[in-house]
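R.M. (postdoc): so does anyone remember the format we settled on? I'll just put the structure tokens first.
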């Protein structure tokens, strides 16, 4: 098999992994047609470096042959797809070729499990080690690690990578038993805990002056949403644990997408993409706005409201806490006002030291007045009790009804 054929298979197979933060933009494609500027086909995706820069990565699987049989995965043992395996040298060559042509600034490398978890990790490490030690490659490297691999190998991977990740895939052992029977939640958590300890050690060494130390600075993971009956509360509770106990940088929520020749126990359709979006919003509330999972969801309502963003939904359930006075409210209170983001709260705290905040100031900050007005008192605005108590308040924020299309591809099927 030529290198190009392998690249086509293994770059395509890597696209299901969202934990490199690839963009969700519509893909242009000039292959086999006129024009230039294809964004698909060669496995290039985009991610964010620790300093916030957007960087392009060569995103590949080392192989799509796998000895595991996860139902939701196109590369599973029982899947009828064309298989390919890169050698470590081939991935090194591709990375350097792409890098020298200025196509990419780094590599995202994942893999199906060939022979054993340790054997696969050794191959993945061989790529990173050769790039770093033989070619002095200083670009970004994100390595996907395998929880079943020995801790020493995972540790070695962390020494060559900027970011490492282990995919949790599903939030509970019960879900894993159903859809990924070879995977074990406790084993994955143990591997994440081990990585966390090593990340802490590396951070301490840097603080103590070891500036030349090369070691990953964070770990991330991915979960698949909508492949089973797991609720949003299951996902957020697990994410909360991952952020707090394992110092996870990011949990990526990836909506399940039906694969060719799917297993009979999988749903036929993807969940609505808005569910993935709402989970990201709720995740953001937990990390940056001081919300607890129990405030966002409860046993009675274990799934997020798809029609409203979770902060607005929370505010509507807790109207007794509003309106709040923009001039006197604490930072924590302001962060809970629908329509106010972290940056704007910071700006408001600054402005109000010098002047009374008016609606016009909020407009200047590009705050959505329609969203904040019912919840906020400014020097020139006090929402009427009617507005806040009105049954119609929720209706005000609901998306406008759209005319149903007579036929959609889903309905026809
Ligand atoms: S271990 Fe990974 S590559 Fe293998 S079947 Fe499961 S999800 Fe797919």
């Amino acid at each position: 098999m030529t290198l190009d054929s392998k690249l086509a298979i293994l770059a395509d197979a890597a696209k299901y992994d969202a934990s490199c933060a690839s963009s969700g933009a519509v893909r242009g494609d000039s292959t086999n047609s006129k024009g230039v500027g294809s964004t698909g086909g060669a496995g290039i995706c985009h991610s964010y470096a620790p300093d916030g820069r957007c960087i392009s990565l060569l995103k590949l699987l080392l192989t799509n042959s796998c000895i595991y049989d996860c139902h939701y995965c196109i590369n599973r043992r029982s899947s009828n797809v064309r298989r390919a395996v890169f050698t470590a040298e081939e991935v090194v060559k591709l990375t350097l070729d792409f890098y020298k042509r200025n196509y990419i600034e780094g590599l995202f490398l994942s893999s199906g499990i060939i022979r054993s978890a340790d054997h696969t990790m050794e191959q993945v490490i061989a790529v990173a080690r050769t790039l770093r030690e033989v070619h002095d490659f200083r670009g970004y490297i994100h390595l996907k690690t395998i929880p079943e691999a020995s801790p020493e190998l995972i540790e070695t991977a962390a020494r060559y990578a900027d970011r490492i990740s282990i995919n949790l895939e599903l939030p509970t052992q019960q879900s894993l038993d159903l859809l990924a029977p070879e995977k074990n939640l406790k084993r994955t958590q143990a591997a994440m805990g081990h990585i966390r300890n090593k990340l802490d050690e590396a951070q301490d060494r840097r603080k103590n002056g070891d500036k030349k130390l090369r070691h990953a600075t964070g770990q991330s993971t991915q979960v698949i949403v909508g492949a089973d009956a797991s609720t949003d509360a299951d996902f957020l509770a697990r994410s909360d644990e991952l952020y707090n106990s394992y110092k996870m940088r990011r949990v990526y929520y990836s909506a399940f997408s039906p694969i060719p020749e799917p297993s009979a126990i999988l749903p036929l359709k993807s969940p609505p993409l808005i569910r993935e979006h709402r989970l990201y919003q709720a995740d953001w509330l937990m990390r940056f706005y001081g919300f607890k999972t129990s405030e966002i969801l409860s046993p009675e309502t274990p799934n997020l409201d798809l029609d409203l963003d979770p902060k607005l939904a929370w505010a509507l359930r807790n109207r007794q806490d509003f309106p709040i006075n923009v001039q006197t409210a604490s930072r924590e209170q302001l962060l809970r006002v629908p329509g106010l983001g972290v940056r704007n709260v910071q700006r408001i705290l600054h402005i109000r030291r010098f002047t009374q905040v008016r609606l016009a100031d909020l407009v200047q900050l590009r705050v959505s007045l329609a969203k904040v007005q019912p919840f906020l008192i400014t020097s020139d605005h006090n929402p009427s009790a009617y507005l806040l108590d009105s049954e119609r308040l929720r209706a005000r924020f609901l998306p406008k009804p759209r005319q149903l299309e007579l036929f959609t591809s889903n309905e026809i099927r």
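R.M.: ...and that's the designed sequence above, right after the tokens. Also worth knowing: The chain has a mean pLDDT of 87. The chain is about 40% helix and 10% strand.
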